[in-house]
């Protein structure tokens, strides 16, 4: 039981990453933590808070609000004057997000959080971006890259890019911030647990929906040269918890990616092997692959046309800054092939999990 005022403000709870990160922050002795929660998710937030800290522990304080509103929809900031560190994770994680929703949540929402950080005069601002601010950058994209004149696969990438630009502009003006760019986040590498079947899960579920003796997948003209950079949730939150505790991380950008990712064909092979599927990859022009995926989705099968763009994604991600900072910590991204079987097992055991984003 704590009687002190909150020292940390967290957005993105009770989301997938936010819940795990909150657990890590409390475990290292931080807090109390004020969590901004949308009214829609209040009940879920209360359950997860009790699971993490216990029903009689007040180290987790829930505040109903909304980042799409000025002042985060709060009735003043008097209750948060003790906050000295702000973790901003709230965003729409959806490749097919409506541009207007992406703009409201990812861009304007981040600007509102930045304004509150300024009003509270926080000593540290921890921001979770994404490697895919790269858009379709042709080449190796590192922590030093951002404004490269790139095009984007979708509104999700573009709005997250614009949000990071806003954060970096405030950093240039003196905000003591750290930016974390995860690659494609999947379930826990130990348990396989996830709360949303999106991204690579569409590939996996489509394979599992087909006969084991012969499952079809598509390969685009550029697939053999493309990489699917995937990271498990536990690595992402462990890295953020560790790096955010370093004074030297202020002002830095860290890409939380796999330094040795699989090519798209090898990635599909890994899914097929873990799912016990004999797979035939059919060379398919991209427009035809997208049209076929749309038809599958219309028939209720696990398919998302927006994922097709990642089968010939031209960007490769490198993380030299992250590797330097994590050296000696014991933290490193595990190879996808070392935990893919756990992801597959979780999907098979939990068909009730959906693909809808928290908005």
Automatic annotation (TrEMBL):
InterPro entries: FAR_NAD-bd (IPR013120), Lipid_A_modif_metabolic_enz (IPR050177), NAD(P)-bd_dom_sf (IPR036291). Residues 10-240 form the Thioester reductase (TE) domain. It comes from the Archaea. This is SDR family oxidoreductase. It comes from Natribaculum luteum.
């Amino acid at each position: 039981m704590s009687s002190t005022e909150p020292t940390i403000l967290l957005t993105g709870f009770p989301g997938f990453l936010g819940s795990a990160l909150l657990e890590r922050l409390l475990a290292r002795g931080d807090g109390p933590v004020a969590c901004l929660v949308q009214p829609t998710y209040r009940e879920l937030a209360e359950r997860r808070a009790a699971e993490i800290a216990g029903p009689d522990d007040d180290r987790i304080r829930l505040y109903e609000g909304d980042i799409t509103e000025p002042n985060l929809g709060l009735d003043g900031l008097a209750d948060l004057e003790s906050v000295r560190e702000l973790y901003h994770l709230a965003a729409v994680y959806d490749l097919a997000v409506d541009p207007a929703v992406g703009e409201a949540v990812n861009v304007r929402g981040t600007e509102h959080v930045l304004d509150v950080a300024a009003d509270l005069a926080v000593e540290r601002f921890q921001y979770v971006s994404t490697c895919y601010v790269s858009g379709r950058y042709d080449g190796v994209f590192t922590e030093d890259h951002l404004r490269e004149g790139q095009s984007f696969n979708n509104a999700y990438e573009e709005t997250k890019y614009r949000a990071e630009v806003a954060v970096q502009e405030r950093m240039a003006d003196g905000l003591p911030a750290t930016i974390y760019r995860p690659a494609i986040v999947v379930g826990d590498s130990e348990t396989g647990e996830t709360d949303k079947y999106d991204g690579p899960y569409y590939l996996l579920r489509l394979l599992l929906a087909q006969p084991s003796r012969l499952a079809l997948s598509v390969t685009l003209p550029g697939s053999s040269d493309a990489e699917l950079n995937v990271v498990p949730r536990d690595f992402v939150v462990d890295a953020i918890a560790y790096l955010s505790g370093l004074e030297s991380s202020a002002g830095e950008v860290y890409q939380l990616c796999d330094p040795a990712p699989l090519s798209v064909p090898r990635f599909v092979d890994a899914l097929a092997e873990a799912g016990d599927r004999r797979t035939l990859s059919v060379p398919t022009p991209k427009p035809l692959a997208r049209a076929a995926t749309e038809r599958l989705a219309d028939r209720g099968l696990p398919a998302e046309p927006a994922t097709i763009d990642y089968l010939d994604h031209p960007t490769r991600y490198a993380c030299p800054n992250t590797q330097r900072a994590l050296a000696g910590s014991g933290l490193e991204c595990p190879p996808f092939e070392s935990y893919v079987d756990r992801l597959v097992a979780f999907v098979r055991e939990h068909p009730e999990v959906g693909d809808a984003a928290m908005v």
